[in-house]
């Protein structure tokens, strides 16, 4: 039911106030004894309202309360149309809310004609409302029926699709089964191998699942079997990493190259310290030979090296006769011997020890002289290249050759043996 607006309320209140003022002037001043009941009149006399001004004040308060309550009931209980009808009747005559009506006696009910008219109007309004209510309910039922029909159609379509999908899957399974039976009849051995392969794959998957499950467990919750499975899983991961490792991609990494460079520098430092130790040992031997028994030690060394060539023994004899007083003399003698070892020798003049030393010295000098060569080769790889080239020349010429490498200029091009490995 719609509520009346603020304008409607204000209009009704203004009309009621005007009507109360009119009755106040007519009734309260002219007929005070008629307008009030005896009990109310006694209460007014008791409370000093017997004067005209007192009657005026009390009656204004009484009428304002009465009309305020009546207007509130009308505004909140009647419809908006009825409120507008009341307003039109207020405009036509002021006999609607009057306490004193000349045509109607006080205390009587409305006449039968008035009541019949009111009932007829109420019945017509009720019938119109019921008619609209029936149509509204019928529309609501139609909408609900449409929703139910749509849901039933959707369920039917879904069931048909599911049935069609099941039929299609069954047809595919049947065709695969027939093909497998025909293939088994044609080639039974191949079918057995395929079954074995599938069994192996299934077992492998189960093992991998068990390993992953064991590896995911904490250490305190693992059993001996779980520990073994976890170790096997780690080994498998390492093997997979090694198989999928791209050496070329990793070796081109800057960090890896720096690490390799540091390792090579460490190897060179260790080799240089080993040569320093050899120099110290040789100088210590020279100092020992300076004593009184140098002849006996020389003889023992001669007998120990008696199995070498004549030229070797003669060279050792000449070198042993030289004065070896200090370590500096031994240090100066080593470059001379290394230069002699690096020179090409033919017809097996040097021993295998000298050949190894010469190859090692040549490879070291080559690495020290070229930074590009150090990025690609190590001393061992260059040594292998030199050995291969010397063996090839020996097969061609029939002579023993110790290959040496000249120093490489850092600013020039790379040597021709770079990239031979």
Automatic annotation (TrEMBL):
Compositional bias (Acidic residues): 277-291
Q: Does the keyword Transcription regulation apply?
A: no
Give the start-end ranges of region Disordered: 181-229, 266-421
Residue ranges with Low complexity bias: 328-340
This one is known as Uncharacterized protein
Coiled-coil segments, which residues? none
At the top level of its lineage, which domain of life is listed?
Eukaryota
Asked whether the keyword Membrane is assigned, the reply is: yes
Compositionally biased tracts (Polar residues):
266-276
Q: Which UniProt keywords apply?
A: Membrane, Transmembrane, Transmembrane helix
Q: Where is the composition biased (Basic and acidic residues)?
A: 193-211, 292-324, 354-364, 385-396
TM stretches of this protein: 56-78
């Amino acid at each position: 039911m719609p509520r009346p607006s603020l304008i409607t309320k204000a209009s009704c209140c203004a009309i009621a106030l005007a009507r109360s003022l009119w009755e106040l002037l007519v009734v309260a001043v002219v007929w005070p004894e008629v307008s009030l009941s005896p009990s109310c009149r006694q209460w007014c006399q008791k409370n000093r309202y017997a004067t005209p001004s007192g009657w005026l004040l009390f009656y204004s308060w009484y009428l304002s309360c009465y009309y305020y309550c009546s207007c509130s009931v009308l505004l909140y209980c009647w419809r908006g149309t009825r409120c507008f009808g009341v307003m039109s009747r207020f405009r036509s005559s002021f006999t609607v809310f009057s306490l004193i009506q000349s045509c109607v006696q006080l205390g009587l009910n409305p006449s039968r004609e008035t009541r019949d008219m009111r009932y007829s109007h109420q019945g017509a309004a009720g019938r119109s409302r019921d008619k609209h209510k029936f149509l509204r309910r019928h529309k609501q039922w139609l909408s609900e029926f449409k929703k139910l029909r749509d849901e039933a159609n959707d369920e039917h379509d879904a069931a048909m699709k599911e049935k069609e999908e099941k039929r299609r899957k069954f047809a595919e399974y049947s065709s695969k089964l027939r093909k497998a039976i025909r293939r088994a009849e044609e080639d039974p051995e191949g079918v057995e191998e395929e079954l074995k392969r599938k069994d192996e794959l299934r077992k492998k998957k189960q093992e991998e699942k068990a390993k992953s499950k064991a590896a995911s467990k904490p250490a305190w919750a693992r059993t001996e079997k779980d520990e073994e499975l976890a170790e096997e899983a780690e080994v498998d991961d390492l093997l997979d990493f090694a198989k999928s490792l791209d050496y070329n991609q990793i070796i081109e990494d800057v960090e890896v190259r720096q690490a390799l460079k540091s390792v090579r520098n460490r190897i060179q430092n260790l080799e240089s310290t080993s040569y320093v130790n050899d120099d110290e040992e040789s100088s210590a031997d020279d100092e020992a030979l300076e004593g009184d028994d140098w002849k006996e030690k020389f003889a023992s060394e001669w007998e120990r090296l008696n199995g070498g060539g004549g030229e070797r023994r003669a060279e050792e004899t000449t070198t042993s006769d030289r004065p070896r007083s200090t370590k500096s003399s031994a240090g100066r003698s080593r470059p001379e011997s290394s230069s002699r070892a690096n020179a090409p020798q033919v017809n097996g003049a040097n021993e295998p020890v000298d050949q190894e030393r010469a190859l090692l010295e040549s490879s070291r000098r080559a690495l020290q002289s070229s930074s590009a060569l150090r990025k690609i080769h190590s001393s061992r790889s260059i040594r292998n290249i030199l050995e291969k080239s010397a063996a090839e020349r020996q097969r061609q010429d029939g002579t023993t050759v110790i290959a040496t490498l000249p120093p490489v200029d850092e600013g020039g091009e790379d040597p021709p043996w770079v990239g031979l490995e």
